[in-house]
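User: Fold this; tokens only.

Assistant: Input:
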Amino acid sequence: MIDLHCHLLPAIDDGAVDLSMALEMARIAQADGITTIACTPHIYPGLYENTGPGITAGIADLQGQLQQAGIDLQLVCGADVHLVPGLVQGVAEGRVPTLAGSRYLLVEPPHHVPPPRLEESIFELMAAGLVPVITHPERLSWVEDHYEVFVRLAERGAWMQLTAGALTGRHGRRPKYWAERFIDEGHCMILATDAHHPQRRPPLLAEAREAAARRVGTEEAALMVQGRPAGILADTPPHSLPASLASRGAAPSERAAAAETTGWRALWNKLGRRA
């Protein structure tokens, strides 16, 4: 499996605090069946002032440490990029790295406040030839009132990356509900760990692949953790990669259909908005 969102680099953001923790996380990932990890520290002006050259240097150092420790993981470059003005120029100048130097860019919206001009900002990136991969929409506190915005973005070519732990319930009932809805309605392109810590937020992907397989089948689940991520690393144009279930016009899974029978809003109210 390929994990395209992981805060593995030590002492660079709110992920691994030191080399020892990074190595522990790497061992967990390897044991889980992950073979490639994109090191994606935050780029958040005013808080995490990381840049492409600094991230690249950190990856080279950590790759050497993994080899010395006998941990068989391939590291590639990336960043969890806060959605701010000037991203196109930042990518062009090399300050903001895309995933493995491809056209695919991890974009992180604010967690608690919907950004102004979200759709316009995403379309600006697309107009510049980038493919925005929006990280963890299921965990945003404002997703319930803006779900249709993410649906529109997905339909127009943006990608949605869900957090593995959200789908398996590690982040609570509310993110699990929204992760399942994105999956069931066919708007999830990839799953990634967004790991930050070996215990609290571990780099586990297999359990989410199995959870997705129970909802949409083993083939689609494998595309989320292997097929499409491999295409991203090869910089394959999105139209040449397997489309999402929604784009293919696939019918929802039996479990999703049952949920729709009761009504998504009724189910959401039953779970409770504070979950």
